[in-house]
Amino acid sequence: MNETIVKLRLNQQQLELMDRTIAQGVAPDRAALVRLALREYAASRKAETAGSSR
Amino acid sequence: MTTRKITSEWILEPGTGKAIELLKGQVLRIEQVEGGQCADFNCFNLHDYKEFMHCGRTRTVHGFHPTKGTFMWSAPPRERAMLYILEDTVGRNDVLFPRCSAYVYEAAYGFSVHTNCHDIQAEAQREYGLTPDDVHDSFNLFMCTGVDADGHAYMTRQTTKAGDHVDLLALMDVLAIPNVCGADVMKTSNFALKPLKLTVFEATEADLASVPTTPVLASQRTPKDFKNPVIKSDRGLRRDPDYRPEFPNTPIVLTELPVALTAEEVTMLNAVKLTDIYGDDDAAALRDILFSWWEERFLQAHAGAPAIEA
Q1: What are the boundaries of each domain within chain B?
Q2: Min CA distance, A51 vs chain B (Å)?
Q3: Over the stretch B80-106, which tens digit does the pLDDT of each residue have?
Q4: Predicted-complex ipTM score
C-alpha cells in the first residue's frame, strides 16, 4: 500500500494528553489517534463547507 | 421560603465606599436607591489579602457581563470561587473596564481632584491596613458596557431603577468593598452620583443549595505550596543569590512520532492543512489538526478558560 510518512514533533506534555486520550479507548496508539483526528477533523470541515454552501 | 435574617445595613453616600467583613454563608446585597448608579467592587480573602478577586479569570469563565448564577474567582494560583452571584435583577455588570482613577480625570477632563473609584477604594480599604497599591481591577456592578467593531470597550447609560439589586453570596470569609462609582462626567451612572444601599444577611438553606459545586484541584495553590511563602515587606527588588530556577516540566523535550498516512488521508490533509501558517511543513500542520480536533471533541470550557463543573 502506498503510504506517506509524516513525522510529528511533539513534546512530553502533548504526548501525555495523547496518552490520556488513548487510555480512554479513543484509539489504540498514538499514530492511530493522529489518523483518527485527521479523518474526523477533515470530515467536520467538509460538513461545514457543505452546510455553508446550502 | 425561610425569612432572611439581616445583620447589617448601610447607605453608601456618593463619593464613598465601605469595607465589609462578609463571612462564608453571608450575602451582601448592593441595591439601587434612586436607580442609575454604578458600583465598583473589590474583594479579598479576609484571612490572606494576597488572594483577591480577579476580573481576568472571571471574564474568561463567565464572559464580559457576569450575572446571576456565576462566580467571582480569585487570581492564579489560588483560582477559587470567592463569591456567587445569587441574584441580579438587572443582569448588566462589567469586567472589561478598570476602576476610574485620578489620572483619568486629570488627563482627560483637567480635574486636579475628582471622585474616582481607585481613590475611593483605597480610602475604604485603608480601614483594614491596605494601601493604594492593593486596590485591584474592579467588578463593575450595573455598568453597561460592550466592545465596538474596532475592539475598544465602550460604556453607555444604564436603565436600573430603585430597588434593583445584586446579591453576592460569600463562599469564603472575605473583605468585600463596594463603592459608589465616582464618575459623574461619563455615561456610567447617567451623569449623576447617587447613593447605594448595602445589606448583609444570612443565606438561607435554599440559597446555599442553589450554588453549583466547583472543582477542588491540586493546581489551586495556597502559600503552603509556595517555594517562597513569605510576603515581601519592603519596596525595593533585589536578586536572591541562592535562586536556582525550578520551572515545572522543563526541559521541554521533543519526540518524533512517525505517522503513516494512506493516499486518501494525504488528500484529507492537503484539503484542510493551514498552508498560510505552516507552509510546506506537513508535520506542523498535522499537529495543529490533532490538537484542534482534540479541542473540538473533548474541551468542556471555552478555549483558555478552566472548566468549572465539579
Answers
A1: 6-222, 247-297
A2: 16
A3: 999 999 999 999 999 999 999 999 999
A4: 0.96
